[in-house]
Amino acid sequence: MSKIISRKWHLIDAENKVIGKVAEQAAVLLRGKSKIDFTYNEDKGDYVVITNVSKASFSGRKIENKIHRHHSGYMGGLKEIPMTDYFERFPDNVMREAINGMMPKNKLRTPMMRRLKIFKNANHAYKDKFVTKEEAK
Fold it and tell me: What is the CB neighbour count within 10 angstroms for residue 10?
């Protein structure tokens, strides 16, 4: 018996907002925790579109103190980039990693993260997906 899940589209503008607060809001919507019939073992989340990520900010001195690390897999392949440089080049990756860390660490994470769309500026291709207040009446 398959259940029909109604998924809505949510738009979050990250301009002048703290990255952690936006990530937390997006994680709740992706998991479906704000829905009445939320259960931990089912994926009932919505679609989330985040715009203006390059204009978001960090709280405190995180952007100065944090270091982005990734490893190539080879010996001595640890790459360290200061967060100021990494956020300047890849602000969408910073937001995606913040949200990814808030998702459950199981098989539900991948389909939830597929419904996340992140854009550096206000231009995106999902403008027709959102329901305006006039159309809802």
Answer: 18
